[in-house]
Specification:
With about 200 residues, the protein is an alpha+beta fold. The chain has 2 domains: about 100 residues, GOLD domain (Jelly Rolls); about 70 residues. About 45% of the residues lie in helices and about 30% in strands. The chain has 2 helices and 8 strands. The longest helix is centred in the C-terminal third of the chain and has 73 residues. The chain starts with a helix and ends with a helix. This is GOLD domain-containing protein. Keywords: Developmental protein, Membrane, Signal, Transmembrane, Transmembrane helix. One of its GO terms (cellular component) is endomembrane system. It is a single-pass membrane protein; Single-pass type I membrane protein.
Length: about 200
């Protein structure tokens, strides 16, 4: 029975739906929209983060298939929004950079699409055990997918902070060379100025 259980878990993980993180660049005063077709009862999780540009803020909104605004936020740096599809159809999520007139923004995001929730009820005891086992496997797969998304999110955050640190280090090195050059020029200037006093 344990071998059967682990085999099912392995197959569920192997064939589970995966999510990919995307990097997009949104020009100043522009908007980028993406679409996801799902069935009613599907779990959706949108995570995003602005990695470059301006004050690292972006406007976001999610619209359902019926045209109803499900989520709207302005000037967000990062966020995570989870919801269950209230009806089947195409869901649209847009990132807007309308508030910026000069700066383009780089946004990392991913939309994790889960499984459709179904309630299967059987009367036989042997099938109840199988259903309970299947439900536990689905819960485990959902939890593992959540952990994977969190790890992806943390690795993206690490990448962003590493880029910020490298950029800051590069600027400090340039500033150090600039300071050294200024000190050298000032020293030579002072030597020439003082030397002029002693010339007859």
């Amino acid at each position: 029975m344990k071998i059967y259980f682990f085999l099912i878990i392995f197959l569920e993980i192997l064939f589970s739906k995966s999510a990919f993180a995307y990097f997009i660049t949104i020009d100043a005063y522009d908007r980028e929209c993406f679409f996801e077709r799902v069935e009613k009862g599907t779990d959706l999780v949108l995570t995003f983060e602005v990695s470059e540009g301006g004050f690292l803020d972006i406007d976001i909104h999610i619209v359902g298939p019926d045209g109803k605004m499900m989520f709207q936020s302005e000037r967000e740096t990062r966020g995570k929004y989870a919801f269950t599809a209230h009806q089947g159809g195409i869901y649209r999520y847009c990132f807007c950079n309308k508030m910026s007139t000069v700066t383009m923004k780089e946004v990392m995001f991913d939309m994790a699409v889960g499984d459709v929730k179904t309630n299967i009820e059987q009367e036989e005891d042997s099938q109840d055990e199988q259903i309970n086992l299947d439900n536990k496997i689905k819960d485990l797969r959902t939890a593992l997918t959540g952990v994977k998304h969190e790890q992806d999110y943390m690795s993206r955050r690490d990448l962003i902070h590493r880029n910020i640190n490298e950029n800051t280090n590069y600027r400090l090195v340039l500033w150090s060379f600039f300071e050294a050059a200024v000190i050298l020029v000032m020293s030579v200037g002072q030597i020439l100025y003082i030397k002029r006093f002693f010339e007859v």
